[in-house]
Design goal:
Helix content: under 10%
Oligomer: single chain
Number of helices: 3
């Protein structure tokens, strides 16, 4: 055992010398190897006098088996001001912030995040649109039988989205903020089920967060699974009813005399295929806003990597007036794009072209060309440049 320990120690020393050339002289390297016949002993860097690592917080438990706990309460006094034409009045955001995390052995990891604004008579949005509090309670990774896990949330949240819908390189389904409940379940065959609902709203505040509800309601449900190792299929629906968007767009307390109630219903389906470094995904949406005729959208994205090169491209056709919950999504656009990327240890090169046309003919047609390159001169310095060209009609 002693001979094996000495051999392992010598291998570790040689590996360190290979990874950090020039830091140790041959004489110093020879001195770092124990003499033959000596017992192996642990050695501390700088004699064990290094300061403690506080990158994960000011307190680290000396017991590695102890579950993590954290509680932080901050008091905030702030003055926010703007300068220049049209600058808003000076704003005071004073309040209290709460941040807590705790792990459990059988119920997953929990966290709580909240804020309470104590002052704010001069807030930008005025009394009708002032959000003074925000609170969110989350649980992640609660284990169940047969490999199931769940994530859950209560309070001021963003609408949940199936994982395959979040992997979008070109068009995004933007989460709709709401005050309510959400849940996500994950099981065998990468099965995922998401659901949530509540009252739509908007997050406000800079120094102290607040959540302003907008009235109405929203609800969503979706699921995804992998019928084969290369395939993932998913579908999700979301609806919002009678959302007063004016409450989120107040300016100095001025409220529109006729509130604009917003309603939408949207369905989404997707199919993704992955084989090695090649990926392709097809997406389809169908929805309406405020009872209008149903509109559709579809887009296809694909990418592949070959050595130092990555090629990606796609086609899209999305009709006007589409939304995801209470958030408008990209619409009235059709065209395609292609991008090529080269990356080695020192060189980085990227070039692409986007062609976007208006489906209705009422929007702008744009051709966008982009390119950039970079060369890494040394470990700490590089040189490069970028150029973009936009042609509109």
């Amino acid at each position: 055992m002693k001979a094996a320990a000495r051999a392992s120690y010598r291998a570790a020393c040689l590996f360190g010398l290979a990874a950090l050339p020039g830091l140790l002289s041959p004489r110093a390297a020879a001195q770092s190897v124990p003499e033959a016949g000596g017992d192996y002993q642990d050695h501390y860097i700088a004699g064990g006098q290094l300061p403690p690592d506080i990158s994960l917080g000011d307190y680290t438990s000396s017991d590695p088996g102890q579950l993590a706990r954290a509680l932080r309460v901050d008091g905030v006094l702030s003055t926010l001001s703007e300068q220049g034409p049209g600058a808003a009045p000076r704003v005071h955001e004073d309040g209290v912030l709460l941040d807590a995390q705790w792990d459990t052995a059988a119920y997953g990891a929990w966290s709580a995040l909240g804020g309470a604004r104590l002052s704010g008579a001069d807030l930008r949005a005025g009394a009708a649109g002032t959000a003074r509090t925000s609170f969110t309670l989350r649980e992640r990774g609660m284990p169940f039988d047969d490999g199931w896990q769940s994530d859950n949330g209560l309070g001021d949240l963003n609408s949940p989205l199936i994982a395959v819908a979040r992997a979008q390189p070109r068009f995004l389904l933007v989460s709709s903020p709401f005050q309510g409940l959400m849940t996500e379940w994950r099981g065998p065959s990468q099965l995922q089920i998401v659901a949530g609902g509540g009252e739509p709203g908007v997050f406000q505040g800079l120094a102290v967060p607040g959540f302003q509800t907008l009235g109405g309601s929203t609800a969503t449900f979706g699921a995804a699974f992998s019928p084969a190792p290369q395939w993932t299929l998913g579908a999700q629906a979301i609806t919002s009813r009678d959302v007063n968007l004016d409450l989120g767009l107040l300016d100095g307390g001025a409220v529109n005399a006729i509130p604009s109630l917003f309603s939408s219903t949207t369905g989404y389906m997707t199919a993704a295929w992955q084989q090695g470094s090649t990926h392709a995904q097809f997406n389809l949406v169908d929805g309406s806003i405020n009872g209008s005729n149903s509109n559709v959208g579809a887009w296809l994205d694909a990418s592949t990597r070959q050595g130092f090169f990555t090629h990606s491209g796609g086609l899209f056709y999305i009709e006007p007036n589409l939304a995801w919950g209470s958030q408008l999504m990209a619409s009235d656009i059709e065209g395609g794009y292609y991008r090529m990327n080269y990356q080695s240890r020192r060189w980085l090169f990227d070039a692409g072209v986007d062609e976007a046309l208006s489906v209705s003919g009422k929007g702008t047609n744009v051709t966008f060309l982009t390119g950039d390159t970079r060369y890494q001169l040394t470990h700490d310095a590089g040189v490069g440049g970028a150029a973009n060209l936009s042609l509109s009609s």
